[in-house]
Amino acid sequence: MFAPIKGLNQLQDEPFRSKMEQSKNKQLIDVREVHEFKKGHISGAVNIPLAHIEGRSADISKNGDVFVYCQSGMRSKQAAKILLKNGCKEVNNLSGGISSWTGSRNK
C-alpha cells in the first residue's frame, strides 16, 4: 500500500510548483468533483473527476509532464496510478492536495 510506484513523483507544494513552472509541455489535472473545482482551483487546471479518468485517459498526452491534484492527495494518487497504467511515463502528484497549496487559485 505504501510502496513507491514507478513513474509517480509525490511532491510537496514548493517542488510541485517549481517543476510545473519549469515544464514546457505540461497538463495540470484537478481530479476533484465539478462542484469542488468550481469553489477554487489552481490556475490552468483542467477538471477531470477521478471517476472519469480512465475513460478520458486518451485525452491526456503521454509525452508531456502530467501534474495531478485533489483535495488531500489521495484521489489524485489513484488517478496517477490509472494514468501510469494507461501509458503516461511520469506523473506528478501534489502531496497534501490543494489543501497544502500556497499559490493562487482561480474561482
Structure, explained:
- The chain has helices spanning 13-22, 34-39, 50-56, 74-85; strands at residues 8-11, 26-30, 41-42, 46-47, 65-69, 91-94, 105-106.
- By secondary structure, it is of the alpha/beta class.
- The chain has a domain at 27-100: 3-Layer(aba) Sandwich (Oxidized Rhodanese, domain 1), CATH 3.40.250.10.
- The N and C termini lie far apart (34 Å).
- The model has no long low-confidence stretch (mean pLDDT 92).
- 33% of the residues lie in helices and 22% in strands.
- The protein is built from four helices and seven strands.
- Residues 22-103 form the Rhodanese domain.
- Pfam families: Rhodanese.
Task: Name some characteristics of this structure.
Oxidized Rhodanese, domain 1, alpha/beta, 22% strand, Rhodanese-like_dom_sf, two-stranded antiparallel sheet, 107 residues
SSE string: EHEHEEHEHEE
Largest sheet: 5 strands, parallel
Structural class computed from helices and strand pairing: alpha/beta
Give the N-to-C terminal Cα separation.
34 Å
Low-confidence stretches: none
Mean pLDDT, nearest integer? 92
What strand line-up does the widest sheet have?
1-6-5-2-4
Q: What is the beta-strand fraction?
A: 15-25%
* CA-atom Rg in angstroms: 12 Å
User: What is the fold named in CATH at topology level of one domain?
Assistant: Oxidized Rhodanese, domain 1
Shape: globular
Q: What is the CATH H-level superfamily of one domain? A: Rhodanese-like domain
Pfam families: Rhodanese
Protein name: Rhodanese-like domain protein
InterPro entries: GlpE_sulfurtransferase (IPR050229), Rhodanese-like_dom (IPR001763), Rhodanese-like_dom_sf (IPR036873)
Organism: Paenibacillus pini JCM 16418
